[in-house]
Every structure is written in C-alpha cells, then in structure tokens.
Specification:
Layout lengths: L1 H42 L4 H26 L7 H14 L20 H19 L1 H4 L4 H20 L12 H10 L7 H17 L1 H10 L14
Helix pairs in contact: 1-2, 4-6, 4-8, 6-7, 6-8
C-alpha cells in the first residue's frame, strides 16, 4: 500500500496543477472575451452572443500571439549544459584526471584574452577531454597530435559561430556544418567519429555560454575582453 500511495500522490498532484492552470487560463480568456464583447457592443450593432464570440476569438488570438512572442524572445533551452555540468561532477566523484591544454596556447596576457580566444580555449579542452575518453577515435595519434587536433576543431567551431547573425535563434552546430566549414577552408573533412566529438564539444559550450554568445554575436564583440573565469584551470 505504501508503494501505491507513494506514486499516486505525485500523479494526483500533477493532475491538480494541470487542472488549476487550465482553469486559470480559461478564466482569463473568458474575462478578456467578455470585456471585449462589452466594448464591441458599444460601437457595433451586435448581439451579446455575437460580441462575446468575437471577443473570445480576439482573446484567444492575443494569447497565442503573446506565447509566440515570448518563445521568440527567449533563448533556446540549454540542452547540452546539463551534460557539461554532469561531466565535471562525474570527474570529481570518480577521481578522474584529464589532461588540459594550457591557456597560453590561446593567449599570453589579459589583453589577448578576448572572447574568441577564451571560447576557443574552452571548446578545445572540451573536445580534448572527450577524445581522451575515446582513444580509439584518434589512434594512432600521440597526445601532442590530439591536442593540436582539438585546437583545430575548436577553431573550426568558432569560425562557424562567427558566421551566425543576430537573427539566429539556434546557435548549435551539426556534422554537416563542420564539414562545410572545413571544405570552405580548403581542408578535407576528418572522419565522422572525430567530427561527432567536435560537434559534442562545440554544442556543450554553445549552450553553456548561450547568453554571452547571443550578446557577442549581436555586438560583434569577438575581440572584446572576456569577463568570465576559465572553466579549465
């Protein structure tokens, strides 16, 4: 009985919340439609039913428009951010240690620590860490070559992001975009297994730094100083 009660309570609570939200929404639309009906009757020769019906249509349209505008203004959901956060938690819990690419590979002093350099460093280390988890993908490369590969893939990811415009609603990249960018650079695309790791690392940072990226793209602030601390220290 305790087990049944344990799962029944959350289900009933969820149903109650849904019904309450539905009731509030329906009540709001009804009140708006009645108000609109009253206003319409002041200016148009309509019956109460006709004006109420038109008011309901206007209220529903206004509600739909509001939801659409709010969805358009808000940034995309950070679907990759939990993966990145969980990864650091797993690393700490299991005592795993990953090699890192030093920030001096990307900037030598605070003046050179621009958003472009900072994000390249972050993405490169994400890719480098994932490649350490999948050594078969880069075999028979040595560690130095894997680091160089990670940096190169991060630079390709930054090149794609820098092509984004302020109108872009989705900043994430995919396998095809990485291949096209490499071809645009006159390079032969790497194996898909390597590029999938790159896409994973790029998108992890795209969502983790979503707010900053939208502002950087809007203002074209790639060469401005980065005001965040390095995740990889």
């Amino acid at each position: 009985m305790k087990n049944i009660f344990g799962w029944l309570v959350p289900v009933l609570l969820f149903i109650t919340v849904v019904l309450l939200l539905f009731g509030v929404s329906f009540g709001a639309v009804t009140l708006i439609s009645l108000g609109a009906a009253w206003l319409l009757r002041l200016f148009l020769p309509l019956t109460l039913f006709e004006s109420a019906l038109l008011g309901f249509v206007f209220a529903a349209a206004a509600l739909y428009l509001l939801i659409t505008v709010v969805s358009a203004i808000g940034p995309p959901a950070a679907s990759w951010a939990p993966r990145r956060t969980a990864r650091f938690a797993d690393e700490e819990a299991e005592g795993r240690e990953y090699k890192q690419i030093a920030p001096t590979r990307f900037y030598q002093n605070p003046a050179e620590r621009t958003w472009e350099a900072f994000l390249t460093h972050e993405i490169a280390n994400d890719i480098y860490m994932d490649l350490q988890d999948a050594p078969s993908v880069t075999s028979p490369m040595n560690d130095s070559q894997v680091q160089e590969l990670s940096i190169r893939l991060a630079q390709i990811g930054l090149a794609i992001l820098k092509r984004k415009t302020a109108r872009a609603r989705d900043l994430s990249v995919n396998l095809s975009a990485v291949k096209r960018e490499m071809q645009r650079m006159g390079q032969r695309p790497y194996d898909d297994d390597i590029l999938r790791v790159a896409v994973d690392g790029i998108n992890a940072n795209v969502d983790y730094y979503a707010d900053e990226l939208y502002e950087i793209i809007r203002t074209q602030g790639w060469n401005k100083p980065a005001e965040l601390e390095d995740e990889w220290n």
